[in-house]
Amino acid sequence: MSFTKLQPCLRITALLTGLLAAASASAEFVVIVGKGGPDAMTKEQVADVFLGKAASLPGGASAAPQDQADSSPLRDEFYTKITGKSAAQAKAYWSKLAFTGKGTPPPEAGNSAAVKKAVAGAPGGIGYVEKSAADATVKVVLTVN
């Protein structure tokens, strides 16, 4: 086969590789709290709240975590980057705790707008959204690339 005949195949391969790279590129997201919440949190503090290991936010307010929908790609990225678990592993973790009566998972919201609204309206509210979704109604305590 001549090089001229391979060129269309090489172009298609390059195009597919670029599309896959773009699809797997992660977006920046932020962890948010209500206006009365702490000014900053570490990744470990956030993980402890979302895994039920900490019942309060820094400063003492009872934590009210709000999760993204189970089908959200942001949810998997959040759990992987913050807790070191996939969303499926976190779900299994919470299933075990719920079965033994030791905890209940954070409630889910439909999307980032719903998470932001829930966090802004709840004392101790904490959640995660795309960076572009954060506004003056909430306080960003952690940015994750």
List descriptors.
4-stranded mixed sheet; 4 strands; globular; 13% strand; D-Maltodextrin-Binding Protein, domain 2; 145 residues; alpha+beta
What does this structure look like?
This protein has 145 residues and is an alpha+beta fold. The protein has one domain (26-144): Periplasmic binding protein-like II (D-Maltodextrin-Binding Protein, domain 2). Helices cover 43% and strands 13% of the residues. It is built from five helices and four strands, in the order αβαβαααββ. The protein has a four-stranded mixed β-sheet, with helices on both faces. The radius of gyration is 19 Å and the shape is globular.
* CATH third-tier fold name: D-Maltodextrin-Binding Protein, domain 2
Q: Could you spell the SSE succession in H and E letters?
A: HEHEHHHEE
Give start-end ranges of low-pLDDT stretches.
Answer: 13-25
Major sheet: size, sense and barrel closure? 4 strands, mixed
Rg on CA atoms, Å: 19 Å
Number of domains: 1
CATH architecture: 3-Layer(aba) Sandwich
**Which percent range describes the beta-strand content?**
5-15%
Give the helix tally.
Answer: 5
| SS class | alpha+beta
Q: Into which percent range does the helicity of residues fall?
A: 40-55%
Shape type: globular
Task: Give the strand order, joined by hyphens, for the main sheet.
Answer: 2-3-1-4
Q: Would you state the CATH class?
A: Alpha Beta
Overall mean pLDDT score?
87
Spatial separation of the terminal alpha carbons? 44 Å
Number of strands: 4
CATH superfamily: Periplasmic binding protein-like II
